[in-house]
Amino acid sequence: MADGGASSFIMLVTALLVSGSVSAILITQWGDAVRTVQTQDRAATAIDSTDVDFAGDPAMVLWNSANDTMVLHFVNSGEVTLDSSTYEVMVDGELPASTTELVLPSGTDWEPGFLLQVFVTNAAWSFSTGDDVSIFFVGVSERVGGFTHSATTNQEVRLNVV
Questions:
Q1: Fewer CB within 10 A of the end CB, N or C, for the chain?
Q2: Mean pLDDT, to the nearest integer, of 61-85?
Q3: Residue of higher predicted confidence among 27 and 141
Q4: Element (H, E) at 139
Q5: CA–CA separation, 132 and 159 (whole Å)
Q6: What CATH architecture applies to the domain 51-161?
Q7: What is the Cα–Cα distance from 127 to 157, expressed in whole angstroms?
Q8: Strand, helix or coil at 161?
Q9: What is the percent of the chain with per-residue pLDDT over 90, rounded to a whole number?
Q10: What is the maximum alpha-carbon separation in the chain?
């Protein structure tokens, strides 16, 4: 009887140790799952807060035929800061040969409500006054909660040659 009780006690202790180890693993995995869900929620919130729009009069976009440069304005209409140097602009589905930008009014960070003035140049373009062109813009947010997000806008504009 003493042998039966001792072996039962050993089995009980072993079962308790195994179940404790399994519980610790499950609790760790549950914590990891909760952190992942929280990270995804923060990322989704930042996606909803990232936006950009065309600014200015779409019927009066400046085209300088002397130096083949178009002047475009985009407004950060979201709630997060956008990267003023990481963007793409396409005019009628073509990338310009070169772009330069200026953040207005600050000249530095493209904060919500600020404008990005973009000068796009391409010698292959030969536009005239009244030409309609399609503008497509993709901007990227600065890192928010470990993530970057993109914002796009497109607009058909009419050119005014100067």
A1: N
A2: 93
A3: 141
A4: strand 132-141
A5: 6
A6: Sandwich (2.60)
A7: 12
A8: strand
A9: 51
A10: 107
Which tens digit of pLDDT belongs to each residue from 11-51? 878 887 888 777 778 787 877 777 777 666 665 555 668 89
Burial of 120 (0-12, 13-18, 19+ CB in 10 A): buried
DSSP 12-34: HHHHHHHHHHHHHHHHHHHHHHH
Q: What does the alpha-carbon distance between residue 130 and residue 159 come to, in Å, rounded to a whole number?
A: 5
The tokens for 77 are: 């209409």
- Sequence-distant (≥ 6) Cβ neighbours of residue 76 within 8 angstroms: 51, 52, 82, 110, 111, 112, 113, 114, 115, 116, 139
d(CA 147, CA 132): 36
Highest mean pLDDT of the ranges 21-35, 111-125, 133-147: 111-125
Q: Which tokens belong to 154?
A: 């497109």
